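User: Run a structure prediction on this.
Assistant: Running it now.
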Amino acid sequence: MTVTEPAPTSVHRPQPPAQRSFAEAFERAAAGFRLDADDAEVLLSAEGDDAARVRGLAAEMRDAGLREAGRPGVITYSRKVFVPLTTLCRDRCHYCIFVDTPGQLLTLHKPVYMTPEQVLAVVRQGAALGCKEALLTLGDRPEDRWPTARAWLDEHGFASTIDYVAHVARLITAETGMLVHANPGVMTEDELRMLRPVAPSMGMMLETTSRRLFEEPGQVHYGSPDKDPDLRLRVIEDAGRLAVPFTTGILVGIGETLRDRAESLVALRDAQERHRRGGVGHVQEVIVQNFRAKPRTAMQSVPDAGVLEYVAAVAVARLVMGPRMRIQVPPNLSDPQEFALLVEAGADDWGGVSPLTADHVNPERPWPHLSDLAERTAELGFELRERLTAHPEYVADAETWLDPALRPAVEALADPQTRLARADTLPQPAAGGAGRAGGGGGRDRGIARLAEAAASSPSDLGDDDWAALLTATGDDLEAVVSTADDVRRYTIGEAVSLVVNRNLASSGLRSAPEGAGEYSLDEAADIARDAWDLGATEICIQGRMPRAEPADAYLDLVRTVKTAAPGIHVHAYRPQDVVDLAERGGLELTATLELMRAAGVDSVPGTGVKVLDERVRGLVAADDLPIDAWFEAMTAAHRAGFRSTSVLFYGHVETAAERIAHLRALRGLQDAAQTAGSGGGFSEFVPIPLPGPQGGVPLVAGRAPLDEHRAMVAVSRLLLTGSIPHIQIPWTRVGREHAVELLRAGGDDLGGTLLDGRVRPDAGVEQGLELPLADAARLVARLFRPFRQRTTDYREPPADRRVAS
């Protein structure tokens, strides 16, 4: 495999031990000798061609191990939901934004611990999406530091946080059939024994054996009792004695030296070897995780781990741990263009990836879409296969590694031949488990209970139920909003995002521009270059071309923008624009979409519709595309692999039932897109209030406009969760102040900055309405939630496109 290396980063590299040369260490590794810390340190320090040789050897070792395991050419992952059971912690790690204080919980309206109902609401939706792992992650022993945590546990009858973890884990498997991976931090041997019957695997990162980072004031682990390396190694040893399939690993770039890294890997290998059973040790995988700086932490200004430094750690981990170890690299913590180096370095597992929940530890780094991860893995010459939270070797020897209480649940999800995950199998509740809550019943069920049922299984509610939630007032509305915001928190996460973009109205393109808002192709090129220079990563183009312009003008405009700013994402055109281009060019929709992609269109707006109902269209938007034609165009776009937005314009003549039907229709389109497997589908939903003479009509007479909006956002979050991930708040319609309140009702995104630009600012719709990143960051800071700049497809922008906020 040929890989282009990025330029080496400037890092401190202590000299390798003088008594051993690179040639000697490499020869020992190539001969299959058991490497020591001196060998590992020398190999970690390799650069240039020597580093490439280390990666090549690591890849050969990985490939040999996969052949031995009976799955050559396979890279694995686990489809999971991430459950942050509590964000309280007694430690004070200097790079962490996962934890909160009790005061922050009050400000954020977050519970001290997630309730069983909140956990099951997330996990059931994950099960419906095919997730088989529930990752329970939480802070270490918060009751030892925070009286609030101790009081909650006492009130609910639990002796400790670990006791509650065991209760929740047992509940998850009984109610959903999903398997729990418990990651609650440092555990005693008795606590490991308590969790073994409810969690087929457990984990805790070693991070590093460096005592300096733990004992020296100002270092990353100082003041964090659970980051004592000796204590963490003891947990790993205890897990081995109890035959617990265990996940651990190192964290690269937190101030440790190459020697620290080498000693950490050797310590993990030694612990693994001491607890072998039938040739298999208890450490089922070693994660090599790269440090990523987080805002609002003591290490926020520390550079991220360098790519080559990180890749070297992956390769040496493989060489130290051997061919049978699974080496995991989290895909969301690296840019896709770096995947080739990680695979070349001997990685064979991407870890847990969720189609539902955020990475709550790294909220600024969204998971890759599973279809994208599979495609990228295939490009690198490997097949992506789903595994269970316990790796195949441990499932195959269940009598040794799995508690009898868990074996039926594991067996139900394991492929009988490969012991990977069964393909196309959904977890099922155990006999006696409550399973899904039933729907129906309307207001008799109580609005708060209806909202809880919606959070757990939106498909089980009837139309009358949803209408009752949408028309709630007073305390009932507060219950709906609170539940929706919890769903947002525990699925998509706390981050609020915004893309740096500019609008360009294609209806303004003219061969000979004369009036306001009109522009030529040459000016379109200037607009694109200007937007790029201002930091934009997206240009949104929509609007039907004037009849006097040729049909090809749609494509010429996109080509012009892409030529002027090759790196910019073009978000164009609406369904009615696509249909117009097709009809005027005498083309089928499929051919039209192919031409758009070839011209440079990257995604399409799903706008141009008010409510998906012909009665409503006839009354308020007769010139809009007929509903059937809109469906046809959106379906074709998704089948062609385009991602898109989705919208609902509300507040005119539509009824609650028509709004609910609209949301259900969008969910149906999304289901069809996901079934098609083309990579297309809706990325976000935008509930847009319709102002003006025909707008502003409340569903509930006398209900305040803000409450109308809160109800719409909250119900959108509840009904679309597990389907359309992001709920975008249209700040241009509701204003900045109301936008903040709607982010508390289930919203997670503010759309775009809508830069006017310095070139023909009148060429974009919504001119004069800008939300600079700095302004957006200040708004979000009032919510005590992290703010992040995103790309159109909700990824992290490349470093050179991140605009200071």
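Residues 563 and 635 are 29 Å apart (CA to CA).
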